[in-house]
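Final report, Chapter 2: Outcomes

The project's central promise was a pipeline that accepts a single protein chain and returns its three-dimensional structure in a standardized token representation, suitable for archiving and comparison. That pipeline is now operational. To close this chapter, we reproduce one record exactly as it appears in the project archive, with the input sequence first and the structure output second.
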Amino acid sequence: MSSLLKAFNQPFDVLWRTALVRLPRAVPDAVLRYTSPDGPHPFVLNLPSRGSYDIPVYVFLPSSTYDATARADPLPVIIDFHGGGFFLGSCLEQAPFCAQMSRELGAVVLSVDYRLGPVDKFPAALEDAEDVLHAVLHEEKPGYHELRKTITQNLVESYKTKQDKERKGKSASSSGLPPMVGSVNLDTSKIALSGFSSGGNLALELALDITRNPPIVPAPWPSPFSRDYPHPIPLLLFYPSLDSRLLPSERTRPPGLPATKSFWSELSDTLAPTYLSRDEASHPRASPGLAEIIDGGLHEQARILLILPELDSLAEQSETWVKKLQENDRGHHLRVERYKGMKHGWTQMPVSWLGLAERQTRIESFEIARDFVKKVWKTGEVS
């Protein structure tokens, strides 16, 4: 059944609520010229998947990729996932973060426009996340060659455009642009995963290896990273959703967090189950905070940065997970940054919506994430 037919098969109360929360996704990509002025600006790749559909992936390329002489080494990769409770959200809101990571780490950043409810159901988003990581890691998987071919084609086309502009405007003494030759090689020893809210759920899931545990897990569900993958894996988890068993209105609200207006609370409670049914919410592939830590649960190479705002109804489950990591001798692979007075999602809001303290902590959290990835890739240590 097509996505359009699936959408119109939903009850009317789901349809109009979905239309309301999806309005921001109608914003054209050109808005990134204003919301993310420093660039780089992405192109969209439709990546082949395990199914009959393609996964839209926003690809951010560092400036070094346009110069073959500066691109002798393979490029590190960051795979990023937006938030939105698996029923809303957009890669556009991730652009300032993704662009900064690409610029300052010299990395190819892949922002994944994964499938959402109510049209698609669990585990559609996770399958998309896995397929993108497989396309980076495994030559035999769908998307592996298409990813590299399309990046290279985009570079060649961009180079030709720059060359044409250079020819039109250059002076007699201009030396022109450096030659653009060769293809892009991705560094599979330097891969980082980032995610915000429900996107943090997906990022963590990719580093989990779920073993057989009937009846909740009737069959093994391995990580795309093999158990013997030898390289450290930075996980950047911004206020992640780790336990999906409670609907948004049922979560514990910390002191100081204003009550959600009944309309938005009802809207979230209506739409969240359109992706993940209540019967599946306790599955560790839906609630990664419930997964085992030891015996192949959390990958041995996982190195985790947790960004936790104080005023967040997801904060309690994150703190529970922190204790779980410490009790299972993984606390030394974890760094937690807590932000007093900040609300869930503050780092993804347009800068014009933020106060001075919010802007400053947003900048700080992105810089910490950048430095965390650098250190983990270099040393394997988190502090």
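Archive annotation: The chain has a mean pLDDT of 88.
This record, like all others produced under the grant, will remain available to the consortium after the project formally closes.
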